Amino acid sequence: MEEKHRLSENTKDENTTEVKAFFEKWDTYRKAMDNDYAGHLEAYKALGDFLKTNIDKPFAIFDLGCGDADFMAQSLKNTLIQRYEAVDISDNALGLARKNMEHLNCEKHFLPGDFINVIQNHSGPFDVIWVGLSFHHLSLKQKEELLNKCSSLLSKNGYFIIFDPVLYDDETLEGFRKRWWKTCQLYWNALNHEEKLSIKEHVDNSDFPESLAIYRELGKKYSFTEVESIFTDPTEIYQVIYFQKA
Ligand SMILES: C[S@@+](CC[C@H](N)C(=O)[O-])C[C@H]1O[C@@H](n2cnc3c(N)ncnc32)[C@H](O)[C@@H]1O
């Protein structure tokens, strides 16, 4: 790939043991969600509005790293959802997701495991593939492999959509981590110091976001015609970005 923009330079594959252990302690993450520190409410509202505006036929969605799927259940209300499939490496999260999706009237499947592996054996097709706050855990190589595989699983004009921390175009990973920690210390005040430090440790060890400019280049490489951001949280850390399949 022509390197017009700075890459995260991350060559470390996702440490699924660390990621799994962190999210098995669901309470700290849930506290951050409930206080909307990552913009969950608005991000999932943006997803719901996007689905209602852009999809006018019954559709199938694949939710990679679904967590407890609580916000996703809200986004899918009043849409034309026909099939919901979700995968998570945490059995705890998957159990909560099953419960939160109980009221949704459509075909549902909950798949345990690493989505990198699960997706390899899936034949699709999906109209939408969503990755909420998990894409940035992957190495650049894994991000490319996932984009490539998702491109092949999506129906024509389908959407790969991420909700993720995103670098400014000229920002280094180190600069991003400092910016994130400053934001956390300033605003994430429902968390005690220990909880903040536990999230910081996770960010320092497992978070490798890229910039929108890089996503536009990757989009072109894997047959996506459009790559656009539809939501940025007020702290300018988290965005919802869609990639539309050709
Ligand atoms: C930050 S939470 C996000 C949950 C939800 N998608 C959201 O937007 O709130 C990340 C979730 O992805 C799961 N996860 C991370 N990497 C994964 C992988 N490689 N395979 C499957 N699940 C993964 C974690 O267990 C956790 O439940």
Polypeptide structure, described:
The protein is of the alpha/beta class and 246 residues long. The protein has a single domain (16-245), classed as 3-Layer(aba) Sandwich (Rossmann fold), CATH 3.40.50.150. The protein is built from ten helices and seven strands. Helix 8 (173-187) runs antiparallel to helix 9. The radius of gyration is 17 Å and the shape is globular. The relative contact order is 0.18. The site of S-adenosylmethionine has 22 residues, from helix 1, strand 2 and helix 6.
Uncertain segments: none
The distinct ligands, each listed once, are: S-adenosylmethionine
Supply Rg: 17 Å
Measured distance between first and last alpha carbons: 20 Å
**CATH fold descriptor:** Rossmann fold
Structural class: alpha/beta
Beta fraction of the residues?
15-25%
Write the layout of secondary structure elements.
Layout lengths: L15 H9 L1 H9 L5 H15 L4 E6 L5 H6 L5 E8 L2 H10 L6 E6 L2 H6 L5 E7 L7 H14 E12 L7 H15 L5 H14 L5 H10 L2 E9 L5 E8 L1
Parallel strand pairs: 1-2, 1-4, 2-3, 4-5
Antiparallel strand pairs: 5-7, 6-7
Helix pairs in contact: 8-9
S-adenosylmethionine (SAM) binds next to helix 1, strand 2 and helix 6.
Provide key terms for this protein.
single chain, 246 residues, alpha/beta, Rossmann fold, seven-stranded mixed β-sheet, 10 helices, 7 strands, 23% strand, binds S-adenosylmethionine
In short:
This protein is α/β, with parallel strands linked by helices and 246 residues long. The chain is 44% helix and 23% strand.
